[in-house]
Amino acid sequence: MNHVYSLNRKKHEPLVENEAMLDVASAEGVIDHGIGVGANFAELFIERSLTNTISTLSQQVQSVESGIDFGIGVRLVFGTKVLYGYTNKTESEELKRIINELAALDLRDPTASKIAFNFSKPDEAHPATLRLSGDAEVDSKVAYLLAADTAARATSNLISQTRGGCRQKEQHIEIFNSEGLHTQDVRNYIRATLTAIAADGQEQATGMWSDGGLLGWEMREQVDPKRTGDEAARQALVNLGAKACPSGRMPVVIGNGFGGVIFHEACGHLLETTSVAKKASVFHDKMGEMIANEAVSAVDDGTMNNEWGSINIDDEGMATQHTQLIKDGKLTSFLVDRLGAEQTGFERTGSGRRESYKYAPASRMRNTFIEPGTASFDDMIGSIDRGIYAAQMGGGSVQPGTGEFNFAVTEGYYVEKGKVQYPVKAATLISTGPAVLKEISMVGQDFSLACGMCGSISGAVPTSVGQATLKVDDILVGGQG
Questions:
Q1: The domain containing residue 233 runs over which residues?
Q2: Which of 157, 175, 185, 217 lies at a C-alpha separation of 20 to 30 Å from 92?
Q3: What are the φ and ψ backbone dihedral angles of 393, each rounded to 5 degrees?
Q4: Co-location of 202 and 260 in the same domain
């Protein structure tokens, strides 16, 4: 439920740290009821989230929206069959009613034993000071977005318009389950973005810059509106003057940061037990085998301080971890949630995630990236006779199961005889995850991460993608030149 407020409304209803969102005795009764109908596992996921979203169009504030959402998810597991429902009510009878409806076709004699709850709370590895429950800081956020617009417009009279956005979320969760788990966590997310539009006659082009993390609006001390505006405008102006991209098979150097979206989409999803358990992934039987060039080592890490995709615990209550997916080209781990562990036999990795109480958790990525190497940018470009430098990547489409992908290059350059020649537009990279992993021959040192939202069967969750600049020896480039 969202409400539109005026700019001077800043205070949200306060949330008390460590205060239970559901009475413990009620939770115990509901969990016992779930076990009583024969479920092997029963879980309650309670969530209360505050959100604040600000949108600007050039120098105008378009909207300021704030909201509070509360709900409880009920999960029952019968063997490997998962039943899930949710409600906005806290009454025990309502939660038991949901259990009865979920289990109506699966009723059986109880097999699990009652276990007393043992409360534990994770250490806070991602502190936030300017939290949404304290002050929405609307005036400060608006000032940042308008200053970024001013900076973008100052770069060139060809910048015709900007679109800005700042979204902050404070998510409180509490989990009870039939294994005796009772835990709580608080997550603070912030992300600020500016898109610049350059126009010259009938031609238009866009550029974008974004910053974000698992922290509060104290992020304003780490970001510079001038840099945000300058970078968004620079990308737009480069694209405005770009030539048509040549097509064909050729080597491509892919830039750092959001360039990691290709690994995330085309390879990362294939390493989640969501697909591995169903043998819907081409990697389901490749554990311990070489699936990439030995230059490639890849990680999914939920422990990185204040990063956008980090968490203290996953949405099943397990502590997050650093998971080495690929080491020197060899597949070393999958991303495993509770159900995935039962289905595949692999150990859980703290990767059970969900968008909200409306979704059952599934194995999902956190901060997923290819680790940096030792190659230099000049050596990578210098090794190309004819190819493309994809400085910035955009969205695309991926075929689940095979990893076949088609990704847009949002800032690209033609490379010839070891030198960057001129910017190109309308370029796409076409391949498969398994194929592109084997074509990565050089990885640079300029590692960085970028924020994104990843959608899957358990909704959209914050994830980071990343890499250093790297070289793909052979890939199909689509273009109009």
A1: 2-240
A2: 185
A3: -105, 155
A4: no
Cα–Cα distance measured from residue 293 to residue 303, given in angstroms and rounded to the nearest whole number: 26
Q: Do residues 231 and 253 both lie within one domain?
A: no
Q: Using alpha carbons only, what angle is made at residue 28 by residues 23 and 30, rounded to the nearest 5 degrees?
A: 95
Q: Give the model's pLDDT for residue 115.
A: 83
Question: The tokens of 259 are what?
Answer: 């360039």
* Last residue within a domain, chosen from 213, 240, 267: 240
Q: Percent helix, strand and coil across the chain, each rounded to 5?
A: 20, 40, 35
**Three-state secondary-structure class, residue 481:** coil
Asked which of 240, 275, 297 is the last residue of a domain, the reply is 240
The answer to whether the predicted template modeling score (pTM) of the entire model surpasses 0.90 is: yes
Instruction: Report how many domains make up the chain.
Output: 2
CA-based torsion, 98, 340, 268, 364: positive or negative: positive
Q: Are residues 206 and 253 in the same domain?
A: no
Q: Is the dihedral of CA 36, 37, 39, 40 positive or negative?
A: positive
Q: Where does 188-312 have alpha helices with state H?
A: 225-240, 261-266, 273-276
pLDDT (tens digit per residue) in 330-345: 999 999 999 999 999 9
Name residue, tokens 């996953």: 314
pLDDT tens for each residue of 222-271: 999 999 999 999 999 999 999 999 999 999 999 999 999 999 999 999 99
Tens digit of each residue's pLDDT (9 = 90 or more) over 293-328: 999 999 999 999 999 999 999 999 999 999 999 999
Q: What is the CA radius of gyration of the chain?
A: 24
Give yes or no: residues 378 and 293 share one domain: yes
Q: Which of 143, 126, 144 is nearest to 189 (CA)?
A: 126
- Report the alpha-carbon distance of residue 425 to residue 472 in Å, rounded: 19
Q: How many residues are listed for the chain in this entry?
A: 481
